[in-house]
């Protein structure tokens, strides 16, 4: 039945201020006006469609008019009675303008998608799966396809979702506010996957803010474009059940963990200079890593980031794998294929700071929402970035849920947390007077510490077999110790001190190394205070530091010999291993994120020899229990002789648990062959040299030993001894055959 507008004048909205706010796109509560509302005469419908000249509600099945809507404002506000009953009928909207006519669903007829429990958990900052509620989720509601949008912006006076679907007009889809928690939401019909969108926000004081990308967006435009893309959670049929059931043993502190750190955008490029896709990376990177014997791939940040020159360490889209290389499902398939080949996946995760790009989190709702307002707490001068306010429960929830998101939705095996030291200390890289002490007067960031502990507790509790890794460069105690024991709860910690000391040593001319002998031994004083990873990361081959091979002293042959000996020392030293891409074949050029690696180096036997050494080191590391089982236990290491600085030699014993056979490592960091060099051994019998960095197959001079017989002659405080030929700038590994 049709109803003329004059039949029921009593239900007309008598609030010019509300109508003016709506048509101006500045109404704080648009759902209180727009959509169907009960009235004394039935159901009144109010609609805002700025470009329409006429509007009516129609039956969606028959197309018959339910009620004509009066144009109450020239900028497209319409109102009319659509039913004399109290219940809201099913309806669609029909609009005309000149000769054009179109139909659409009414976004304001759909109720809230948030239940009381969701709102309660969001308000308390305890919603571990907030990504299932916030963000853009394509769905079908009441038989209508569309997308539900939700965003946290508690201090905004109005939030709209904008995109091509509404002409980027913030008046069209003004959102519903849940005032108790500060979340805005709306279901927009007929918007599906692939649509670009942003949030148009008006601050508390009426200021229009730059359009914002979705903080919980699951996909983004390819940078430098900055819009979010409607996608929803990744839709992927995983095939890694076996991996997920057994990965706890692969990530264990007793396991042989050897990590290949990679920047996905510059590992290898296409011939035209373009990026490889996630699928192409899976085709090429996974077999390469598997062939070399690495157990894990660590991806530098994959979260969406606007500036490629940040290498991903200034992310804005924390919930979106970067679109530079493909879709979220493509990234999921990359992870799945890694698992199918027995390779774990670690991603770098950046909760320490975020960039100040206008479309990002900075002053998101017109206030310091995610960051601290005071720059003494909220600004990183080193990186010109903003610091999260870890003490705000919603911010901590946003970050903690993001950590779990990668484990839940993408089956990530470990998170390597970036810049932990900057999170722990309020005076990090600040002079006196430039920071604010905590409530106890100290320099510890108590809120960040609590956040890290809580996140690690949840990570290990909810995702068995997964682990976390801290890039932490200070002596903060217990970083990789359990929270119940007073620690931060990480699974592992990067050993930055070991890396700095040993690189300083190996960079010395051999004639001067005698004066720096302690650089190679000092790390053993604290090697078992944490579960350490020995990192030769991207940070060591950038910013003018040169490549690893370029930092080695001597002529070309000596440079390669030094690097081979250093790698052998690293692979036999207590601690898990991490090597940045290119190091495995001694790339000569400093890393540049805009170029692929110099793969032509592998045509040179000296470079391919280093690669072959890395392969063999990984094989020996995995195969010899003594070299990995007690990496994190003091019982797995003993010095045989560390007190020969004049000759720059180091001799040590590695042990496993139970009946694992021991391994003895001998390093000679001078270019002098040492004939008849006697070493102490834990037992007599035949010992075999299972690896020698000076082997000719690696590009060495071929000073090797094969097998040696240890006699019952005490030496170096050991019951047996044997004589060796020590290779120049070389290191070797012996195991007992008897």
TrEMBL record:
Superkingdom classification of source: Bacteria
Pfam families, per the entry: Alpha-amylase, Alpha-amylase_C, CBM_48, GlgB_N
GO molecular function: 1,4-alpha-glucan branching enzyme activity; cation binding; hydrolase activity, hydrolyzing O-glycosyl compounds
Substrates-to-products reaction catalysed: Transfers a segment of a (1->4)-alpha-D-glucan chain to a primary hydroxy group in a similar glucan chain
Cellular component GO terms, alphabetical: cytosol
Record keywords, A-Z: Carbohydrate metabolism, Glycogen biosynthesis, Glycogen metabolism, Glycosyltransferase, Transferase
Gene Ontology BP term (one): glycogen biosynthetic process
Pathway the protein takes part in: Glycan biosynthesis; glycogen biosynthesis
Active-site feature positions: 418, 471
Residues in coiled coil: none
Annotated ranges, domain Glycosyl hydrolase family 13 catalytic: 261-615
InterPro entries: A-amylase/branching_C, Branching_enzy, GH, GH13_cat_dom, GlgB, GlgB_N, GlgB_N_E_set_prok, Glyco_hydro_13_N
Functional note: Catalyzes the formation of the alpha-1,6-glucosidic linkages in glycogen by scission of a 1,4-alpha-linked oligosaccharide from growing alpha-1,4-glucan chains and the subsequent attachment of the oligosaccharide to the alpha-1,6 position.
Family: Belongs to the glycosyl hydrolase 13 family. GlgB subfamily.
Subunit structure: Monomer.
Protein name: 1,4-alpha-glucan branching enzyme GlgB
Source organism (scientific name): Phyllobacterium salinisoli
Gene name, Swiss-Prot/TrEMBL: glgB
